[in-house]
Amino acid sequence: MPRPDLLSAQLAQALGRAIVAGDIAVGSSLPTEADLCRHHSASRTAVREALKMLGGKGLVSARPRLGASVRDKQHWSMLDADVLRWMRDAPVDHALLLDLAQLRLAIEPEAASAAALRRDPQALGNIAAALEAMEGDPVEALAADIAFHAELLRASGNRFFASQASMVENALSMSIPVTNAAKQVAKADVEAHRIVYFAIRNGDAAAASLHARAHILESVRLLQEGRE
Hints:
Layout: H1 4-20, H2 33-40, H3 44-56, E1 60-63, E2 67-70, H4 81-89, H5 94-118, H6 121-133, H7 138-155, H8 159-162, H9 165-183, H10 190-201, H11 205-227
């Protein structure tokens, strides 16, 4: 039998995925503790801990004698790693992808500018390695494309930008297949990424910001067209 803490985490994962996918609708009540215990072969302690985890992520609220219910999406911790992962596993949501792209638009150009001013050799090497790997097959290219943007954030030297790397990784894992399909290409435009890299390597903060912004704006355009 799984440890109680592991069972709680597994139950939180199952319920979280169901909520994010819309299988348990916003505003609806979750099954009772007794039903959850019975269905998942879990103790009340494990169920309560799982609900506490989901409550901490803003997905559910619990009231004495009324049980737990799904909160409105505006209360969800959208940058929580688990919530983002569950969103990635759910059906494609163009509105969500647009929101994430617009968040990237507020962060990445500034991070690119900071990276150009900093020009850390190791960080530049990491970006260059991701850029080179983008020349590989589509599966490798997808992973490398995601790594490129995550390494760009880390190269900024700003801890707050760097902390958003996992958000960007999840966002891109959802959006790149959509935007590549819209462009009818198997993988991303390496040259567009190379322009950003060279601006950073050359210490041109303005150009790095400009090209990073243009790159994301292209994604926003494609996502908007796909939503229409």
